[in-house]
C-alpha cells in the first residue's frame, strides 16, 4: 500500500510540474505578439527627437524639474514622479499641458518646479 501511495504522490507532483510550463508557453506567444505590436508602433529615434522638438515649440507644454528627492515621500508620490518621467534631482522633462498632468504636478508640488511654460 505504501508503494501505491508513493506512486500516486509522484503522479500528482508530475502533473503539477506539467501544468506550469504550459502556462509559460502560452505567455510566450502573447509576449511575442505584444513585442511585434510595440515594434510596429515604436517611433524611430529621429522621429522621437523631432516630436520632442515640436512639443517644446508648441505653447501647450510645461517644462518640469525635480528639485527634491522622493526618497522619504509616500509610495504614491514616488509613483507620480516616475509617471512624470522624473528619475533624479535636477532632471527636466517636457510634457503637454493637460489637466491630468496638472493634477500630477499638484500632487508632488513640493518635489518639483515648473521651469517654463514653453
Summarize the model shown:
This protein is of the alpha+beta class and 118 residues long.
Q: Could you describe the 3D structure shown?
A:
The chain has 118 residues and is of the alpha+beta class. It has two domains: 1-42; 59-116, 2-Layer Sandwich (Ribosomal Protein L30, Chain: A), CATH 3.30.1390. Helices cover 61% and strands 14% of the residues. The protein has helices at 2-41, 45-57, 75-84, 99-107; strands at residues 61-66, 92-96, 112-116. The chain has a three-stranded antiparallel beta sheet with strand order 2-1-3, covered by helices on one side. The termini are far apart. Mean pLDDT is 74; it is low at 16-28 and 47-56.
Which features characterize this protein?
single chain; three-stranded antiparallel β-sheet; rod-shaped; Ribosomal Protein L30, Chain: A; 118 residues; 2 domains; alpha+beta; 3 strands
Which oligomeric form is depicted?
A: single chain
Number of helices: 4
**Which class of the largest domain in CATH terms?**
Alpha Beta
Contiguous uncertain segments of 5+ residues = 16-28, 47-56
- Domain count: 2
CATH architecture of the largest domain: 2-Layer Sandwich
Give the overall shape, derived from the CA principal axes.
Answer: rod-shaped
How many β-strand runs?
3
**β-strand amount:** 5-15%
Give Rg in angstroms: 25 Å
**How many strands, what sense, and barrel or not for the largest sheet?**
3 strands, antiparallel
What structural class is derived from the secondary structure elements?
Answer: alpha+beta
Approximate helicity band: 55-70%
Amino acid at each position: 500500500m505504501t508503494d501505491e501511495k508513493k506512486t500516486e504522490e509522484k503522479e500528482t507532483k508530475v502533473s503539477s510540474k506539467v501544468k506550469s510550463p504550459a502556462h509559460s508557453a502560452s505567455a510566450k506567444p502573447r509576449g511575442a505578439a505584444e513585442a511585434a505590436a510595440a515594434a510596429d508602433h515604436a517611433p524611430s529615434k529621429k522621429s522621437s527627437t523631432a516630436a520632442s522638438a515640436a512639443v517644446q515649440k508648441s505653447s501647450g507644454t510645461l517644462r518640469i524639474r525635480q528639485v527634491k528627492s522622493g526618497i522619504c515621500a509616500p509610495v504614491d508620490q514616488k509613483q507620480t514622479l516616475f509617471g512624470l518621467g522624473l528619475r533624479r534631482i535636477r532632471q527636466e522633462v517636457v510634457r503637454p499641458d493637460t489637466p491630468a498632468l496638472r493634477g500630477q504636478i499638484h500632487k508632488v508640488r513640493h518635489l518639483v518646479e515648473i521651469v517654463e511654460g514653453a
